[in-house]
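quick one, 413 residues, struct below
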Amino acid sequence: MDILRLMTAGSVDDGKSTLIGRLLYDSKSILVDQMEVLEKQSKNKNSNGIDLAIITDGLRAEREQGITIDVAYRYFATTKRKFIIADAPGHVQYTRNMITGASTAELMIILIDARQGVIEQTRRHSIIASLLKMKHIVVAVNKMDLVDYSEEVFNKIKTDYLEIADKLNLKNVQFFPISALDGDNIVDKSTKMSWFKDDSLLDYLENVELHQEVNLEDTRFQVQFVIRPQTEEHHDYRGYAGEIVSGIYKKGDRIKVLPQNIETTISKLETGGKEVDEVFAPQPAVIHIADDIDISRGDFFVNVDQLPTVSNEFEALICWMDSKELVPGNKYFLQHRSKLIKTIVKEIAYKLDVNTLNEIPADTPVKLNEVVRVTLKTATPLVFDSFEKNQGTGSAVLVDETSNATVAAVMII
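---
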């Protein structure tokens, strides 16, 4: 059974948390003891006697204010698919939280209040989806019960949003008229909107195709652990364990070890404790090679005909996540999957207005939640692809050297 990672986005009070609560409630993914707690804590009760938003609003501050201020993750499953849902904040000042939630998602649900239509936050979240190369967009027009389930209202919002999607080159956009509070068109088809002929939202989420999301073209494997038992039984065993980031590896393939730039051959492949002839993304695997090469955690195995970039200087878009300002010359650690490298922010080219995608001169220090284009220089060569080509090797984070706090999300250009 495969897993769909998705996130919700929208303005404050558009009903993101209620939508997720409805998905969990109507798919019977809430335990009986959890239901009893929900009934006691509910203030804004619906016809079922509970406040569905409480299911995802896990922080005390959120419950007291009735808003979402952090990314809340929830898990549930149907007979067809497992789901990981991220509920992201709607406030402008929590842009970093939204980017965090969207960075691992394959699909974004953008909620729009049927009474408000397309607003600034809708554009903002759509732009972030575009920056992160989101593969699937679902536009859920919520609170249809407050506009008398009007097909005209729905079609007007659909037309307005398609203009945005076209400008941002967003693909695979689907539209659903819903009422998260009452459950219309979420798990079950609504009888109140007979004019809407498509399936329910959950039906779509269960059946949306995900196989194309796995990059099987570019062979990328990063070593996470060197296995050398040095026991009597496995005296000469030396394997390199990690996750296949992308591509397909076969026994006998000619590969290069990077950044050393040494060519060798795959002599043996293992996954799940068994020897196999091939492994592919996103499987965990142990790769054995024919030659005795000095290999460490963070090194890459790649096909000799599909080489990534190897450099200690590159450009990237970063979302700044720290309360301390970023200025050129600051030093950090770059965490690139398993590899941790000392890094300096060499130059800040410009700031990016996430409401318009306009470039703004970087004549002031970079502050929390701002997105900027920078040049980064690493102490040792980095093996990478552009984020657009391969998100697995084109993304990273910056870490403060002193506090070990994550201060920026990095998308390599």
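The domain at 220-303 is CATH 2.40.30.10 (Elongation Factor Tu (Ef-tu); domain 3).
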